[in-house]
Inverse folding.
């Protein structure tokens, strides 16, 4: 007890209540002040701008009886999903995860005060797992946007969201506290994972189902990340959660609002690596060896050649191919990337001017109705890591055409029956020649493997 709290015990002033009558009030005020920690203040500052996201989507339903597959058509059912989001502008622009909105037929956003607002999807980007929603209302509370660039390992962070949807009884967001466990975490892609989770913030703040898309907030109440996924054997939080850096989320949200899509960085080079074995050996790696350089691309213009080694980029050491993926994911067309490179036995700094993906500016030709194709070029070969020298890239096609032909976006067709095709116009001509006749057979490359499919052209 401090001295000034002891002194009143020695004196009794007439007309003044004894100390024992004042102590409970003073103690209660001190206790209340001590309870208002930085975490309380941070949660109070950010929580008004956090929303719950409810989606209705249609999900394909596989027959349960294995014998029924041959006699029953594949059905579907409507399912409900939940997530979280946060408001970044007073006119109702909301950021969330793309895996929350994927396939949504209807989206409803619930504010902290319990209002249900119909939302429309402005855009979504599976690669970064970011989606942008819009509700038609004004004067909404927004979250303060911070920075993840200078996060300190061990500093307090708060995860805010909507775990387990409305099972908890109301629309008040839940708050969990923890620390920044690590930064710059790269998660090895899995086969069923559309997103690229690199350069992530790791936290032990509890993140549970329904928290996806909610904000990770620092002790100042500023959003530093978007809660996205966890490591767990049970599906619940075990203290290893990951958030997308806020700078990436805002950049992607801005691209989606302006262009309806995200413009990808392209520098015209490939590096070695790409598997789990490459990740295990990162301690011994002296950098990333460049395996291919696209003709006329930014890397070639900067003087980089096959066999050079990338050592670092933007001041960060490059140990695995995922480190390089993180650099490209956070860059956009027109940016300049300072890259440390070992070229010809000596190290130097190379400035790569980021360009657009070659496929984004290539001419698209429509064949068979809704199939969009692009003539393969050296730059597109490098972008898509295609092995065949000439062919036609399937850029997009409708679901019905996909089922009817067996083709998929990304396939590279190089032969129709016995005829080699090297341009989009040649493929269109081959289809026209085969129309109304017998079934035609297409040979194509998919993920480095050669396949074929047969179908009729009406």
């Amino acid at each position: 007890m401090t001295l000034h709290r002891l002194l009143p015990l020695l004196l009794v002033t007439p007309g003044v209540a004894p100390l024992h009558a004042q102590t409970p009030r003073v103690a209660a005020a001190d206790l209340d002040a001590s309870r208002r920690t930085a975490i309380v203040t941070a949660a109070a500052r950010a929580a008004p701008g956090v929303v719950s996201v409810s989606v209705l989507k249609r999900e394909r339903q596989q027959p349960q009886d294995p014998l029924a597959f041959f006699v029953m058509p594949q059905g579907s059912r409507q399912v409900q999903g939940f997530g979280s989001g946060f408001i970044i502008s007073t006119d109702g622009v909301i950021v969330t995860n793309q895996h929350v909105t994927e396939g949504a037929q209807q989206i409803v956003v619930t504010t902290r005060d319990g209002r249900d607002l119909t939302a429309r999807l402005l855009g979504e980007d599976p690669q970064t797992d970011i989606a942008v929603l819009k509700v038609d209302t004004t004067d909404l509370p927004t979250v303060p946007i911070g920075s993840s660039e200078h996060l300190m390992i061990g500093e307090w962070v708060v995860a805010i969201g909507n775990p387990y949807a409305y099972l908890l009884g109301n629309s008040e967001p839940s708050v969990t506290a923890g620390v920044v466990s690590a930064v710059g975490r790269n998660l090895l892609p899995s086969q069923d994972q559309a997103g690229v989770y690199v350069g992530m913030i790791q936290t032990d703040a509890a993140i549970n189902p329904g928290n996806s898309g909610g904000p990770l907030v620092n002790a100042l109440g500023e959003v530093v990340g978007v809660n996205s996924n966890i490591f767990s054997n049970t599906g619940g939080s075990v203290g290893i959660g990951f958030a997308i850096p806020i700078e990436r989320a805002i950049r992607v949200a801005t691209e989606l609002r302006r262009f309806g899509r995200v413009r990808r960085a392209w520098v015209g080079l490939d590096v070695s690596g790409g598997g789990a074995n490459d990740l295990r050996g990162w301690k011994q790696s002296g950098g990333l060896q460049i395996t291919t350089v696209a003709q006329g691309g930014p890397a070639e213009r900067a003087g980089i050649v096959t066999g050079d080694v990338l050592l670092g980029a933007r001041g960060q050491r490059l140990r695995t191919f995922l480190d390089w993926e993180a650099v490209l994911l956070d860059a956009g067309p027109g940016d300049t990337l300072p890259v440390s490179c070992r070229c010809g036995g000596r190290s130097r700094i190379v400035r790569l001017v980021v360009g657009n993906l070659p496929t984004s500016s290539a001419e698209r030709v429509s064949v068979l109705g809704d199939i969009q194709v692009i003539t393969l070029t050296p730059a597109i070969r490098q972008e898509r890591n295609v092995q065949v020298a000439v062919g036609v890239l399937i850029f997009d096609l409708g679901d019905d055409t996909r089922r009817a032909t067996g083709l998929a976006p990304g396939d590279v067709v190089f032969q129709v029956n016995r005829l080699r095709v090297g341009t989009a116009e040649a493929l269109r001509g081959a289809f026209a020649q085969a129309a109304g006749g017998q079934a035609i057979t297409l040979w194509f490359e998919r993920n480095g493997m050669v396949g074929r499919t047969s179908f009729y052209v009406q």
